[in-house]
Automatic annotation (TrEMBL):
The protein, known as: Enoyl reductase (ER) domain-containing protein
Gene3D superfamilies to which the protein is assigned, alphabetical: Medium-chain alcohol dehydrogenases, catalytic domain, NAD(P)-binding Rossmann-like Domain
SMART domains for the chain: PKS_ER
Pfam family, one: ADH_zinc_N
InterPro entries linked: ADH-like_C, ADH-like_N, ER, GroES-like_sf, NAD(P)-bd_dom_sf, Zinc_ADH-like
Every Enoyl reductase (ER) domain range: 17-341
Domain of life: Eukaryota
PANTHER family in alphabetical order: PTHR45033, ZINC-TYPE ALCOHOL DEHYDROGENASE-LIKE PROTEIN C1773.06C (PTHR45033:SF2)
GO molecular function: oxidoreductase activity
SUPFAM superfamilies: GroES-like, NAD(P)-binding Rossmann-fold domains
Length: 344
């Protein structure tokens, strides 16, 4: 395949015009440096974070204007003269924080997120450092592989980054977004039990089909944290906390002594009402999670292949051209799992 000189891309122009700050434009295909790789992107997916950057609500560093999107997968087209990790034709997926290779995240590597600090994946061709890519799982399509960059790796880090999940343990996941469904799938593959919450009866059925052992409707049952103890009387070992202000009080009710609440998101607001002393009352760990490292992603890809895990992608898949519609669709919370985008 020859390399064209121009391509289509979505640029986040500024954060003052909501989704109208997203501009679809022609742009030069970037040149490949000696340690870099040019990837023909075929798939992408969206995260809540992608939506709130153009809305000006993202609390972490972003350097606008920037090409949108962190999640991308495709095929290696050109390798730089000093690249050893890749060859033409390899199927790859992007690493969220390009500098976070292994071990704990640092201040510097936390500022290397695609689609925020660095140009992202909502484009036809991207140049990445050879260490900013991971081999895509052989059992996944490009769009499926693209969903692993952010949501999947975050869930993997929550379950394995501090105190690795063990068979027989119980994991509580909140809602049916990308992070929570990956956590459900990883937990079931590990032989753990899963309690899931959702606001919808129809989604509750889908959660059961995916293997959830116990489902609670968090709108009908405001005390769902205590209800979770009907299933896990001693409490749950891991909570995948994505609701923030709206959910932490109930998560504390559900967590076991010495359990972990991984604070990942703030879908229900970012100012929790609980005192920090609750960690002592509940004898638990509350841990902030920032996606994950390349080393963790390599482990996760191996687990996905070994267990033939297929990411849950919403039935409505968009194209690069219609990506702004995908933003609006996800903002309405019309989706189940990941919102996928194909790139021609
Ligand atoms: N820290 C990190 O590294 C990191 C990485 C990835 C994502 N995040 C954050 O994690 C959160 C989830 O991301 P995502 O991509 O999975 O989001 P998402 O796909 O947009 O999740 C949306 C779903 O979350 C559920 N939800 C919304 N409000 C809720 C509440 N108050 N209580 C329980 N569930 C609620 C709903 O499920 P139902 O429709 O079933 O009710 C909704 O459909 C976001 O805040 C995101 O910014 C953080």
């Amino acid at each position: 395949m020859s390399v064209p000189t121009t391509q289509k891309q979505w640029l986040i122009q500024d954060k003052d015009h909501d989704f109208d700050g997203l501009v679809y434009q022609d742009s030069p295909v970037p040149k490949v440096g000696e340690n870099e790789v040019l990837v023909k992107l075929y798939g992408a997916s969206l995260n809540y974070r992608d939506l709130i950057i153009p809305k000006g609500l993202y609390p972490f560093p972003s350097d606008l204007p920037v090409v949108a999107g962190s999640d991308g997968a495709g095929s290696v087209l050109v390798v730089g003269s000093k690249v050893t990790a890749w060859k033409q034709g390899d199927s790859v997926v992007t690493l969220f924080n390009q500098g976070h290779q292994f071990g704990p995240i640092s201040v510097a590597t936390s500022k290397s997120g695609l689609g925020g600090a660095l140009d992202g994946t909502l484009r036809q061709y991207g140049v990445f450092n050879e260490n900013g890519l991971v081999r895509a799982p052989a059992n996944l399509s490009h769009v499926e592989a693209a969903t692993l960059t952010c949501a999947a790796l975050t869930s993997w880090n929550a379950l394995y980054g501090l105190k690795p999940l063990k068979p027989g343990e119980t994991v509580l996941v909140q809602g049916t977004g990308g992070v929570s469904l990956f956590a459900l799938q990883f937990a079931k593959a590990a032989g753990a039990r899963v309690i899931a919450t959702t606001s919808s009866a129809a989604k509750a059925e889908k959660l059961k089909q995916l293997g959830a052992d116990f489902v609670v409707n968090y709108v009908e049952d405001k005390n769902w944290g205590e209800t979770a103890r009907e299933f896990a009387p001693d409490g749950v070992d891991h909570v995948i906390e994505v609701g923030g202000e709206a959910t932490l009080t109930q998560s504390l009710k559900a967590v076991k002594f010495e359990g972990i609440i991984s604070v990942i998101g703030f879908l229900g607001g970012a100012e929790p009402k609980d005192s920090i002393m609750e960690v002592l009352n509940h004898i638990c760990t509350i841990r902030g999670v920032c996606v994950g490292s390349r080393a963790q992603m390599v482990d996760m890809v191996a687990a996905i292949e070994a267990n033939d895990i297929k990411p849950v992608i919403d039935q409505k898949v968009f194209t690069l051209e219609t990506a702004k519609e995908a933003y609006k669709y996800m903002w309405k919370k019309a989706h189940f799992g990941k919102v996928g985008i194909t790139i021609g």
